[in-house]
Structure to design on (228 residues):
């Protein structure tokens, strides 16, 4: 149950787009369309942003989108806003029916 | 309002035990799988355990297998995590979460801090 691999940090200017990658194996990310993404602001509980690779829950901005290719999933945030500055985590179902999170990515809005 | 409220965290010595509780409200608790997720201070999220809706199926992260036990009381709308043989590396905020299907969790509690230290 090794953690999924995410970049430690990404940054972008307001209005720009950024993409956060999440790399696993064929036993997790690559084997199922069950990847989710979470946003966490300091001192707060995480919030679900994307489920089943590319679906947005009600209330989540259309600026957030998800995709997957092979063993790598991606979260793209378009039209960056100051409020998007947070930590982002991916999560995948695994072949043993467990779940595994990524190490997290700190997004800085310049 | 859909809500999860954890309790039971605190300071415990290495080798000790603690039981966390999570009170659910605002939804039909007995219809949902539930998970515990933890986060060590300044670190990332780590999945701990999952229990299916009727309590008959459970699964654990390797790091807690044999030491932690997840359970639920659907009559009381409450999820539990019994933690035994605690280690310093178990120090974390423990979140109770609701599974929405598709291997995603959509509701999180506010978390309860467990500190394992002598």
């Amino acid at each position: 149950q090794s953690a999924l691999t995410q970049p430690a940090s990404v940054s972008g200017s307001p209005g720009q787009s950024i993409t956060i990658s999440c790399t696993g194996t064929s036993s997790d990310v690559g084997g199922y369309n069950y990847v989710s993404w979470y946003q966490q602001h300091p001192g707060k509980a995480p919030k679900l942003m994307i489920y089943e690779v590319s679906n947005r829950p009600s209330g989540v901005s259309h600026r957030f989108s998800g995709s997957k290719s092979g063993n790598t999933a991606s979260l793209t945030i378009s039209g960056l806003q100051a409020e998007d500055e947070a930590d982002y985590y991916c999560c995948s179902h695994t072949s043993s029916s467990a779940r595994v999170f990524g190490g997290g990515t700190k997004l800085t809005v310049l | 309002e859909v809500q999860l409220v954890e309790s039971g965290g605190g300071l415990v010595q290495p080798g000790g035990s603690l039981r966390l509780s999570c009170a659910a409200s605002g939804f039909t608790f007995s219809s949902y799988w539930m998970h515990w997720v933890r986060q060590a201070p300044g670190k990332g999220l780590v999945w701990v355990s999952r229990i299916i809706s009727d309590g008959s199926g459970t699964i654990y992260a390797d790091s807690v297998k044999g030491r932690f036990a997840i359970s639920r009381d659907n009559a009381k709308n409450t999820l539990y995590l019994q933690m035994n043989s605690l280690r310093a590396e178990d120090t974390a905020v423990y979140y109770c979460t609701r599974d929405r299907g598709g291997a995603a969790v959509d509701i999180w509690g506010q978390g309860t801090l467990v500190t394992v230290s002598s």
Summary: DSSP finds no helices and nine strands in chain A. Chain A touches chain B at residues 1, 3, 32, 34-36, 38, 40, 45-48, 51-52, 55, 57, 87, 89, 91-93, 96-104 (CB under 8 Å). Chain A has a mean pLDDT of 96. Strands of chain A lie at 9-12, 18-23, 35-40, 47-50, 64-69, 72-77, 86-93, 99-101, 105-109.
